[in-house]
Amino acid sequence: MQTFLEAFLVPAIQALVVVMLLLGVVAYITLLERKVIAFMQVRIGPNRVGPRGLLQPIADVVKLLLKEDIIPAKADRFVFWLAPVLATMTAIAALAVIPWAGTGATLHVFGYEIRPVITDVNVGIIYILSISSIGVFGIVLGGWASHSKYPLLGGLRSAAQMISYEVPLGLAIIGALMIAGTASTVKIVEWQAEHTWLFWLQPVGVLLFYVAGVAENNRAPFDLPEAETELVAGFHTEYSGMKFAFFFLAEYIAMIVISALVVTVYFGGWLPITLGLGHLVPAVPALLSGAWGGPGVQLALGLFWFALKTFLVLYVYLWLRATFPRYRYDQLMEVGWKFMIPVSLAWILFTGVALLAFDALVA
Amino acid sequence: MFRTQELEINMGPQHPATHGVLRLLLKLDGETIVGMKPIIGYLHRGVEKLAETRTYPQIIPYTDRLDYVASFAENHSYVGAVERLLGIDPPPRAKYLRVILAEFQRIASHLLWLATHALDIGAMTIFLYAFREREKILDLFEAYCGARLTYNAVRIGGMPFDLPDGWADAAKRMLDEFPVRLQQYETLLTNNRIWRKRTEGIGVIDADTAISWGLTGPSLRGSGIDYDVRKHLPYEVYDELDFDVPVGERGDTYDRYLVRMEEMRQSRRIILQALANLPDGDVMTKVPKRIKAPAGAEAYFMTESPRGEMSVYLQADGSDRPYRVRFRSPSFNNLQALPVLSKGHMVADVIALIGTIDIVLGCVDR
Amino acid sequence: MADEKTGTPEEQPGDPRAAEVPSAPVDRLRAAMGESVEEVRYWAGVPIVRVRRDDVARVLEFLRDDPDCRMNHLSTLFATHWPEGEHGTLEVTYCLYSTVHGHLLTVKAWTRDEEPVPSVAEVFPVADWNEREAYDLVGVRFSGHPDLARILLPDDWEGHPLRKDYPLEGKPGDHKSYR
Predict the structure, then answer these.
(1) How many Å apart are CA B58 and CA B55, to the nearest integer?
(2) Nearest CB to B123 within list A42, A231, A325
(3) Which of A43, A229, A325 faces B195 most closely, judged by CB atoms?
(4) Residue whose C-alpha is closest to residue A140's, from A72, A84, A91
(5) pLDDT digits 0-9 by tens, B73-125
């Protein structure tokens, strides 16, 4: 029976730690993106600030903090301020249900139990999807509050795109939920520990989910709303300084959320990188996951594997950006509505039938 | 309470994708373009007026700044007009050199077109790759005349310099690895689903409309008319060289893209032939110190610049300065067709269309 | 006889550069619209035909549509100011080419200030902007033009800079609103 303090304090501190770490990580992801894309484009990327450009994110943060905060004369001031805040908050809030290690990594400190997830809601996946829906508001309001034509167009496009792609995003993941029998992120990873990684069983699902995630995130090749060459900068044209930094942050954090979600649901979360085939040689996953050590070891290893896998999925984001041209807006919507939704519906049907057949065979 | 109205938006003179100071007044109904009006003149420098106060050779550097992306083509066009006006015939070696440099200029200009066109549509990486090739060509030009962008590398009666030692070998080296690179770009774009969706069926114009709107160059050849000045009205030594002129079928952006890619390959073919057949001799013929043209003389010299037909009309009055110089720029005439091309398309397509007609504002505004 | 000091050939009667060349469009034009043709001369192998100003649009239409001419490409259109011209003060030049037959032809029409030249924008849509430029820089008016407005200069500019009496550095009040 947890006291109120236990139930409130521990997750609060965990959340604080996660947010702090996250901000540092996101800053370095911006550098990673610039370097990775640069190497793909036969150039070097930032290498002036600090050794090999490693202090570049710090320089960027300082610059954005010191920039003049310009608000257009006719803009709605409250909404103008609210939009980036909304976008970032919802992106960060989605990380509340992602586990970074197994239950074996639960620490006991001062009599408090610290589990390797901020909160384990039994509708974790649905929670994440709904929080990201609220994130759309941030963008729409940003575009509208700027009182300018280009941001308005960008905000509208972005809103329509994000709302449209939420449907395949939700539908694609249903297959995985059906197989695991639960919507809780912690339990999905535990299912994968016992059986196998879900991407083997849901190849179409993982692809659909990832592509819908990229579109949801306004990242290339679906980044028309903020396409520099067409709408100057879309919904964040009129934003400068820290407010712009927040939009920027929100985008990268959402990238991390989608990557973390893909890893958690389909690639085994914090499980070691045995691709779910660990049952063939049980000693290997046991060794890699630190079952031989105490909670500290398990925590460290779980976090390590989780971070590695998330990083690999993030790399695909960057790879996509460097390679593909961008879709025109109506083509983007076409792909979402006319292709992805029917395919994900068909996939759900297929998964359901396959499950029934499997149960019948086994029984 | 609710009503719909058309949005009038300014794709203003300052915009990341208009390749210069071009202003487009767009009337939008949602995303669809209902009306478009290009407004130009932001880069007008009065070069035709300036030319009337300079002597014939003094005008050559001005022509560099017209189409600054393909300045050799402009130099060539102007000097050809003066030579036709006076009946001067440059020596064969000079003609071959002009062809070699003109074709290198064509490749360099098309690489820049590819880079910016792909960048506008979203494929950022091609930009860097194409510029890497262009760097090599600019290095060749720098070795020849000392400049990377505005060459001033043609003289009335021939060429200013002969090729430096090792230039031909460096050129051949660059051309040896060029097909591989072109293939790389094609792999990234030509069969890429997104690229095709963004360019097929966009900006379709049929042959008759195209030529009546004054489109020339790859913009016209994408629609099926094989009008290439190098074949129709051969100048320099183009009639002695063997090359094909690629022609498209449907007249859309994708076809124009394919035409320009193939043109780069054909240019390479021309350069290799010209280097192999380069005659010995002088690069400059005897030309009077003060060049004067008789009153009543008028000449029109048409060339195929990378953007289209670049021509110069000269009217002389007997002095050493021209009475009137007229620069017929391909970009000015191609841009006029933009509203026709963009009928019924969307805002995002405008960017693709500006890229496909390949305009340079220096040439449009003069 | 070449001028020894400058080495420039002077135009002499019999100057080879002014020699007549056979030209199908000129022949067809003389045959079908002979009363519009005022003068034909040659330079560097290209015929230069001066036509009556009011017939310009019909001449160009004939050249475009006649099966032996098929001059479907209006390469350029521009105006020149001749303050002491004998046929007028403003000369409009049209350079035509046939991508079908390969003929090259230059047509000229003369007018004076304030007397408009018929616009050929209906015959060749490409003439639209070129005529606007001729109006903007030289001041030739074109009748029947869809939208004759300044194109290269700001809309409120006064004067026509490409005229011979317009100073190169511009007039004192030119940049009044752009300071």
Answers:
(1) 5
(2) A325
(3) A325
(4) A84
(5) 999 999 999 998 888 899 999 999 999 999 999 999 999 999 988 888 878 88
The domain total for chain C is: 1
Sheet-wide strand order for C73-81: C37-43, C46-51, C104-111, C90-97, C73-81
Kind and range of the H or E run holding B299: strand B298-305
**Contact flag A223-B198 (C-beta cutoff 8 Å):** no
Contacts of A41 in chain B (CB under 8 A): 124-125, 127-129
- Residue A14 placed within a domain: no
The range of the structural domain enclosing residue C62 comes to 36-150
Q: B84 to chain C: nearest residue by CA?
A: C44
Span A120-178, pLDDT tens digits: 888 889 999 999 889 888 888 888 888 877 778 778 878 888 888 999 999 999 988 99
Q: What is the pLDDT of residue A228?
A: 54
Tell me if C74 is assigned to some domain: yes
Tokens at residue B84, please?
């036709």
Count of the separate structural domains present in chain A = 1
**CATH code at C111?**
3.30.460.80
Instruction: Residue A72: give the domain boundaries.
Output: 67-106+119-362
Chain B residues with CB-CB distance to A230 below 8 A: 17, 120, 347-348, 351
Measured between alpha carbons, how far is A39 from A172 in angstroms, rounded to an integer?
33
- Please state the length of chain B: 366
Q: What is the mean pLDDT of chain A?
A: 84
Number of neighbours of residue A203 by Cβ within 10 angstroms = 12
Does the structure show a pLDDT above 50 at A61? yes
- Looking at the domain assignment, is residue C157 inside a domain? no
pTM for this prediction: 0.85
Which segments of A31-149 are extended strands (E)?
107-109, 112-114
For each of chain C's 179 residues, which pLDDT tens digit applies? 333 333 334 445 567 777 788 888 888 888 888 888 888 888 888 899 999 888 888 888 888 888 888 888 999 999 999 888 888 889 999 999 988 888 899 999 999 888 889 999 888 999 999 999 999 999 889 988 888 888 888 888 888 888 888 888 877 776 666 54
Per-domain boundaries in chain B: 46-327
Class of domain B46-327: mainly alpha
**Which of A313-322, A352-361, B252-261, C35-44 shows the lowest mean pLDDT across its residues?**
C35-44
Using CB atoms, pick whichever of B232, B300, B365 lies closest to residue C106: B300
Residue A289 in domain: yes
Identify whether C86 is part of a domain: yes
pLDDT in tens, B18-49: 678 888 888 888 778 888 899 998 888 889 99
Dist. CA B26–CA C74, nearest whole Å:
28
Sort out which chain C residues have CB atoms less than 8 A from B225's CB and list them: 99
Closest chain B residue to C120, measured at CA:
B212
CB contact (8 A) between residue A42 and residue B128: yes
Tell whether A176 is covered by a domain: yes
Q: Are A312 and A271 contacting, i.e. CB atoms less than 8 angstroms apart?
A: no
- A242 neighbors A69 (Cβ within 8 angstroms): yes
Strand partners, B155: B158
Classify the complex by whether its ipTM is higher than 0.90, answering yes or no: no
Give the full edge-to-edge strand order of the sheet including B23-29. B7-11, B23-29, B32-39
> Does residue C105 lie in a domain region?
yes
Q: What are A263-299's pLDDT values in tens digits?
A: 999 988 888 877 767 667 777 767 777 667 777 778 8
Which residues make beta-bridge pairs with A114? Answer: A107
From A128's Cα to the closest Cα of chain B, the distance in A is 30
Nearest Cβ partner of A229 from B120, B125, B129? B120
Chain-chain contact of A325 with B194 (C-beta, under 8 angstroms)? yes
Instruction: Catalogue the E-assigned strands of C44-154.
Output: 46-51, 73-81, 90-97, 104-111, 117-118, 142-143
